[in-house]
Amino acid sequence: MRKNLLGHVKRVVIKIGSGVISDQKGLEEGQIASISRDVCALRARGLEVVLVSSGAVAAGRGDLGITGRPQSIPLKQAAAAIGQSRLMRAYKEAFNSQGTKVAQVLLTRDDLANRRRYLNARNTLMTLLEYDIVPIINENDTVVVDEIRFGDNDNLSAMVTNLTESSLLTILSDVDGLYDKDPRKHPDARRISEVERVTEEIEAMAGGAGSLVGTGGMFTKVRAAKRAALYGAGTIIVNGRIPGILPRLFDGEELGTYFLPARDRMAAKKHWIAFTKKPRGKLFVDEGARRALMENGKSLLPSGIKGVEGGFERGDAVRLCDLDGVEFAKGVINYSLPELLPILGKKTSEIAAILGYKYGDEVVHRDNLVLNK
Ligand SMILES: Nc1ncnc2c1ncn2[C@@H]1O[C@H](COP(=O)(O)OP(=O)(O)O)[C@@H](O)[C@H]1O
Ligand SMILES: N[C@@H](CCC(=O)OP(=O)(O)O)C(=O)O
């Protein structure tokens, strides 16, 4: 069954958790060497591999005299600044010794939230793959502030799966997959081999980080799997501390937890609107407009908009809410706030007369609209 599922995969994103390549003392270079051997074995079978690796903070914090989690953002950023080059050097040595070249790509959420920069990042990654180089991606921890953070690399890896149009996300962690409860706390916990759909019940099983080096725990992995599924990619969570696990996985062994792709896949652009682009404001629409969007597949016209909140430019993402403030969709807006205010509630035939121009009848076009389900 697994063999069939993985047989069609041409490009895979592999996310490596801090707990897989580091311990209390810092980076474990032996682990990095072992994973790079596995990755080279997959490449030798013709797979294209994109890596998302954590571990910068764990690799650098020792120099600051820290053994647990850094207690402030500046300390975490300083640890990442020290550790990122150490992390990359370890990967470079491990891959180069097997004749494979690597490249470092550091991203913030802002880099992907802007469509032009998103496409730039995509071009860079595609070029690296074309030249047979393994991209190694991490969040650019040293410059991020809260508004531009991915927050955790599980989330980042789901976005990279969409960005690189990969059909599989493989998350390497320090645990054998998703269990029905945290196996560190409950010795009787049972591994779940396959998840058809991430329901609330599945989300409730997943707890927080299990070690002092991990960040999001199982919860952020399950959420990443949910996002990847909507884009049409499957996700596998396996134990990256077991040498040789990746080739075994691709041989079809039923290891870890496999999350199936959703049947009604979202196009890459809609996925980007739903999960990567950050909304800048809200539109409050009447019941007729809400129904036209939700039930009849229509675009949003100015006549149904009753109120706005926040400041936004043309091309920003906004949340669409009903008159009770309940959000039901997200979309990319064609008019900036100053342009929208005078045409609120007006007919489309009046737009050009009021503004002196128009970008189109739609305030949010159907093609740039994602409904919450
Ligand atoms: N239901 C669960 N199944 C498996 N692991 C879980 C579960 N709930 C919480 N965890 C914890 O999640 C940890 C993995 O996440 P994390 O520590 O963030 O590692 P990583 O560095 O790989 O991202 C496991 O070590 C485990 O203790
Ligand atoms: N960017 C951070 C990793 C953040 C993170 O999500 O860590 P993890 O939960 O181990 O995947 C670092 O390199 O230390």
Automatic annotation (TrEMBL):
Supply the Pfam families for this chain.
AA_kinase, PUA
Q: Describe which pathway this protein belongs to, using the record's wording.
A: Amino-acid biosynthesis; L-proline biosynthesis; L-glutamate 5-semialdehyde from L-glutamate: step 1/2
Q: What subcellular compartments does it reside in?
A: Cytoplasm
Q: What the protein does? A: Catalyzes the transfer of a phosphate group to glutamate to form L-glutamate 5-phosphate.
The record's catalysed reaction(s) read:
L-glutamate + ATP = L-glutamyl 5-phosphate + ADP
Entry's InterPro entries? AceGlu_kinase-like_sf, Asp/Glu/Uridylate_kinase, G5K_ProB, Glu/AcGlu_kinase, Glu_5kinase, Glu_5kinase/COase_Synthase, Glutamate_5-kinase_CS, PUA
Coiled-coil positions: none
Give the protein's recorded name.
Answer: Glutamate 5-kinase
UniProt keyword annotations, A-Z: Amino-acid biosynthesis, ATP-binding, Cytoplasm, Kinase, Nucleotide-binding, Proline biosynthesis, Transferase
This protein's record includes keyword DNA damage: no
Q: Where does ATP bind?
A: 15, 173-174, 215-221
Q: Say which family it is in.
A: Belongs to the glutamate 5-kinase family.
Going by the record, the broad EC class of this enzyme is transferase
Residues reported in the UniProt entry to bind substrate: 54, 141, 153
**Enzyme Commission no:** 2.7.2.11
Organism, by scientific name, is: Desulfuromonas versatilis
- Boundaries of every PUA domain copy: 281-364
